[in-house]
Amino acid sequence: MILALESSCDETAAAVLSPPSNLLSSIVSSQAKEHEPYGGVVPELASRNHLVLLRPTVEKALASANVTFDKIEAFAATSGPGLSSSLLIGNTAAKALSLSSQKPFIAINHMEGHLCSPFLDMEIKPHIGLIVSGGHTLLVKVKQFDDYKVVGNSLDDAAGEAFDKVGKMLGLSYPGGPEVEKSALKGDSKRFNFPRSMLNSGNLNFSFSGIKTSVLYKLKEIGVPDKQTISDLCASFQAAVIEILVTKALNAAKLYNLPRIALSGGVACNGSLRDLIKKKASEGGVELFIVDKNYSTDNAAMIARAASERFIRKQFSSLESDVNPNLEI
Ligand code: KG4
Ligand code: ZN
What is the DSSP letter of 102? Predict the structure, then answer.
């Protein structure tokens, strides 16, 4: 049994999983409320909160899995990318547990965790992974576990970051992504025609800062928007971002002759994105795996799932390995 910890940003999370894919518990202690007054994650505050929340979160994960500490065979933690002061908390705790119990430590790349999240309870098949989170927008060609090639990346803002910034611009609460989606439900996605940046760029990269700036210019033109206009701006912005994400994922599947797509990351919670990718994948004869909404934003279940693949392969990490805020996949 593996105990995994995730503390790369503002969620303190712990999960217990029996390899290869039997998830026994997953607890996420969110700090969103603490960061809301600042309109974004405050790194110092995040690491202090991780310190407070880590122990009770681990205890809850063990209790909910009905597993005692001595049954844990390996300890895993996210080692990057993320905020270094946040990563250090989960990472150091997992290493200390590993040292004191003489069980292996497994360092996991947060993005590998997201990639594994649509396959929590099943075998990981070759696919094109579309990871859309607050820090990344990646298209990854996955030949098999541990054989990854990034084939598309955002040249500027990540998709989730653009959602958050647009939410902030429109006076919605933090984090903006879910609020933009909520407001968009009452909006007209055709009222404003925001640019589909790089849609026909001939490659698989993304750019979202232009769309975000277009929303800002439109907002300046409008002045003080009424509630309906805010909803129309949200719906139109969301439609532009989603069209680009889905088109590029399908282009990647076609280019690499790999008719299987897996969608993950916080933005994968978005209902319109889920609906459009389902429709287009079905039209294109592409098999689709979408992360369960409960495991799309940061969690430790996905870290445990990745760790279980490494555990099976005996790919353990040194206790001297360091966290890396800029770790690449
Ligand atoms: O994967 P995640 O929890 O953290 C990172 O690894 O970055 O993703 C968080 C991002 C945030 O930008 C948040 O606004 C976005 O996911 N998000 C959404 C939705 N729910 C979360 N974006 C759009 N629609 C949503 N429903
Ligand atoms: Zn994440």
Answer: T
Fold type of domain 2-116+296-312: Nucleotidyltransferase; domain 5 (3.30.420)
Place of tokens 């002045």: 223
Task: Name the closest-CA residue to atom 10, ligand 1.
Answer: 134
- 179: Cα within 13 Å, side-chain hemisphere: 18
CA 298–ligand 2 middle distance (angstroms): 5
- Fold that domain 126-290 belongs to in CATH: Nucleotidyltransferase; domain 5 (3.30.420)
pLDDT tens-digit profile of 81-93?
A: 999 999 999 999 9
Residues of the chain with pLDDT under 50: none
What average pLDDT does the chain have?
97
> How far does residue 267's CA lie from ligand 1's centre (Å)?
4
Q: Which residues have CB under 6 Å of ligand 1?
A: 9, 133-135, 160-161, 163-164, 175-178, 181, 265-267, 269-270, 297-298
Which of 7, 28, 132, 163 for a ligand 1 pocket mutation test, highest count of atoms within 8 Å of Cβ? 163
Contacts of residue 319, Cβ cutoff 8 Å, sequence gap at least 6: 95, 98, 99, 105
The CB density around residue 186, as the number of other CB atoms within 10 Å, is 13
Distance 163 CA to ligand 2 centre (A): 15
- The alpha-carbon radius of gyration of the chain (Å, integer) is 20
Q: Kindly report whether the global pTM for this prediction surpasses the value 0.85.
A: yes
pLDDT of residue 174: 87
If one residue of 170, 263, 264, 267 were mutated to test the ligand 1 pocket, choosing by the most ligand atoms within 8 A of its CB, it would be 267
Query: Which residue intervals of the chain bear CATH 3.30.420.40?
Result: 2-116+296-312, 126-290
Q: How many CB atoms lie within 10 A of CB 243?
A: 17
* pLDDT on residue 40: 87
